[in-house]
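Comment on the following before class.
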Amino acid sequence: MTGDLSALARDDRLGKGSVGAILTDTSLFSRIHQTVVNIDSISDTLAIVSGNLSELSNKTLHGHVATFMNDTTFVDNLNQAVTEIRGAASTTDETLKLLRQSRLLKRYLKRQNKP
């Protein structure tokens, strides 16, 4: 059992497997963080667009604009997209929190930050 754990730890330090990849890929944390930032930005933008569409529909309800604005399928799809993006951002945040709590990752990052 101890030998198996030692082998797993050695493989992790060598970058083998999922944990090893996390420990050896110095850009992984940055890429995950940037993904969360991008998802948050997209979510905010979609919320603004949704609000702008609502405001536009209140101001102009005639012709093609009225047809477009009354298309409940579009609004439903837009709301579903925003919900899914927020869910993905939440899941990514949870993953980042778990990664930050990992003792192996903390030790690795601590070693990476030493001059």
In short: Residues 29-113 form one domain.
